Amino acid sequence: NQLTVIDSNEKKSIEDEIDQIIKQNLFDPVSPQTIDFEHRKNAIPCNIFTIKKFDPNGKFLKYKSRLVAGGHREYINKYTDISSPTVRIDTVMIMLNICAIKDFEMRIIDITGAYLHAPLENQNQYMWIRGETAEIMANKYPEYKNFIQDNKSILVRLKKALYGLKESAKAWYHHLVNTFKKNNIIVSKFDSGLLY
Mind listing the pLDDT tens digit for each residue in 157-193? Predict the structure, then answer.
C-alpha cells in the first residue's frame, strides 16, 4: 500500500484526485474505536493509481490519478445483485442509422469521476486509506489529521460509489436514471441501456 511519488507533477495529480473526492463528499473519516469490530474487520483497502496520459502523437500530456477501492475484499454475501445494464450493440447500430438518415447531430459526453456522484445504498462500508495517500490527505485537509492512526492510515465510512466497489456500477446507473427521470427522460422497455 506504499506509494512512491516520482515528481511534483505526479503528486499534484494525486492531490487533484483527493480534491475531487473531498469535493464530492465521498466519505466521512471515522475513529476506529467508534465502530464495532465486525465493520472494522471488514473494512476494505484502497490504492491510488497514477498513469501517464499521452496525446495521439505519443507526447506526454499529464499524470492522471484515481483512488480505487479494494472491492475484491468486500464481504461476498453482502450483495445479491450488483449487475448494471449496458446498451445492446443492436440498439447502438439502430440509433446510429437513425441519426444518419435524419441527419441528427450526435454528441458524446464524459462525466468526470462519474461513480463519485452516486450515493451508495449500503452506507455501512468502511475503507482504510493508507500510507502516503493518507499523509497527503491529512496534510492538505486538517480535519483528517485528527483521524490519522499511528500506522499512517485513516478509516473512512463510504457514502458514495467509488471505482473498485462491487456495487458502484449499479449505484451509478440508478443515480443516472433517477436524474434523467427528473427531466422527463425515461428508460426504454426494450433496452435498459437506452434512455430517451
Answer: 999 999 988 888 888 999 999 999 999 999 999 999 8
- Provide φ and ψ at 30, rounded to 5°: -135, 155
* Dihedral pair phi/psi, residue 156, rounded to 5°: -130, 150
Q: Write down the pTM of the prediction.
A: 0.80
DSSP string, the chain: ------SHHHHHHHHHHHHHHHHTT-EEEE-GGGS-HHHHHT-B-EEEEEEEEE-TTS-EEEEEEEEEE-GGGS-GGG-S--------HHHHHHHHHHHHHHT--------TTGGGGSBPS----EEEEEHHHHHHHHHH-HHHHTT--TTSEEEEEE-B--TT-TTHHHHHHHHHHHHHHTTT--B-SS-TT-B-
Cα 78 to chain center, whole Å? 19
Cβ-proximal residues to 76 (8 Å cutoff; 6+ apart), any chain: none
Cα angle, residue 40 at apex, residues 35 and 43 outer, rounded to 5°: 130
